[in-house]
């Protein structure tokens, strides 16, 4: 099944760590959405950690999916958000 649907049935504070490696934004924009990030936040335990792989799509056009995702994660409540260019992703903590 699709995690964007399955996550809604998961219990709060279930995971210590989540590795979120979604398909490209153009194929699954809902997995980069504020509402999905709220679900990730909900199922993470207190002080749980997230790694969100975003790749380098759009960088040649001046778009930073990592920066956009970081802003949405912060507005969801995630803390200690750090972009990692080498790993092409974002680390965050609940």
Helix content: 25-40%
Low-confidence stretches: none
Number of beta strands? 4
End-to-end C-alpha gap: 26 Å
Content-based structural category: alpha+beta
* Multimer state: single chain
Radius of gyration: 13 Å
**Mean of pLDDT:** 92
Number of continuous helical runs = 3
What does this structure look like?
The chain contains three helices and four strands. With 94 residues, it is α+β, with helices and mostly antiparallel strands. The protein has a domain at 29-43 and 53-94. The chain has a four-stranded mixed beta sheet with strand order 1-2-4-3. A hairpin with a 4-residue loop joins β3 (79-84) and β4 (89-93). α2 crosses α3. The N and C termini lie far apart (26 Å).
List keywords for this structure.
single chain, alpha+beta, 4-stranded mixed β-sheet, 94 residues, 3 helices
SSE layout and pairing:
Elements (H helix, E strand, L loop, with lengths): L2 H4 L8 E6 L13 H10 E10 L11 H12 L2 E6 L4 E5 L1
Parallel strand pairs: 1-2
Antiparallel strand pairs: 2-4, 3-4
